[in-house]
Amino acid sequence: MGILKQKQAELFSYLKKYILEHNKAPTLQEIAKYLKISIPGAQLRLRTLMLKGFIIREPNKPRSITIKDYPEFKSVTLPVLGVISAGNGISVFEENNPEMIEVPSEMVDTYSPHYCLQVNGNSMIDDGIMDNDFIVVKQQTAANNGDIVVAIINDDEEEKANLKRYYLRGHTVELKPRNKELTSKFYHADKIQIRGKFCGLIRKN
Length: 205
Fold this sequence. Notes:
By secondary structure, this protein is of the alpha+beta class. The protein folds into 2 domains: 65 residues, Arc Repressor Mutant, subunit A, CATH 1.10.10.10; 128 residues, Umud Fragment, subunit A, CATH 2.10.109.10. It has 3 helices and 13 strands, in the order E-H-H-H-E-E-E-E-E-E-E-E-E-E-E-E. A hairpin with an 8-residue loop joins strand 11 and strand 12. The model has no long low-confidence stretch (mean pLDDT 84).
């Protein structure tokens, strides 16, 4: 799996939908018309999808585009909304024009919204989550003890986003790292908001 820019992801989604509906690939002219771009522009985007390993295309042959793993399409496209700290926390922000990433469909609950974040830090390394990994997050506002969560900490003047294991102990929340060199931090429950639950990992290369 790899990362797609928004316009590349738009093309990839169009190709999947077209092939499923018509049992054949669109022509280059149809692609250009759908995307409202020139034919050379459509060729460039197709080449990018090929280089990133999403499609196969035979040169100079009409309707020769095939999608890897077709016809099952065992992946979904999710936005990368920002960066999450696996450390001391980072300022909360979201990308206005997010990149898109293809993730295995088994990581995603069809009935709930999901998104991706890039990890900064190694506090969750014993759970296999490393610096620069991409995590798949199910959007939710509650969690069970032991869940790996996207937690927003309101303990300072600005909100901080953190990735930790969550434990509610009475009126206190423990955010526990999974790195033997680090220790848990504790907050009053009113200072913590749950924004999502970790449900998958994508590692480039």
